[in-house]
Amino acid sequence: MPRKKDEALHAAREQQILEAARTCFIANGFHRTSMRQILDGAGISSGGAYNYFASKDDIVKALVEAERAAIDSLLERLTGHDDPVSGIAQLVYDSIACYGQEDAVLAAEIYAESCRNPAIGTVLRANDERMRRWLNESVSRGVDAGAITARHSVAEITEWLQALIDGYVGRLAMNPKLKPGKAAGMAKASVVEFLRGA
Description:
Elements (H helix, E strand, L loop, with lengths): L6 H22 L6 H8 L3 H4 L6 H24 L4 H14 L3 H16 L1 H28 L8 H21 L5 H16 L3
Helix pairs in contact: 1-2, 1-4, 4-5, 4-7, 5-7, 5-9, 6-7, 6-8, 7-8, 8-9
């Protein structure tokens, strides 16, 4: 009779692999990191590795999918605001302030890989589309209520908001001296001013 899989142990091992991969990708980049390095970092034998992830691509996809929980948490807070402008500005602030420099380097590495790798691109675009959809709805609500008076279409405003977040994260990846909290505060103030048409 086959042994039942210990779900808690399996989840813990998966998390070990993801943490080791994160460390390796930040230090060496995706293409200069081998599965062997990841498994050594996680303390898992190569024989047992494929019980968890079949390839590096699967590990990257798992890292991107894990980000969905963080996105969902931010988006839930967005809907809790009576004032769409305040909610959107806070979402921009939180989306930038939550990144450390290493997080930003990993994000840049994954973005780059998503341009070359359709499987990773699909997962990353799903997260991006989720954020876009929620922002679009909040901007539409703000326009309908007269709270957002910027003279641009809802789609253009949504694209600008996402570009603002991605731009700051990209800058942080390149510049470890950039302070995410201060940058997030400046971005938040800019969003309020822009959306209110000031």
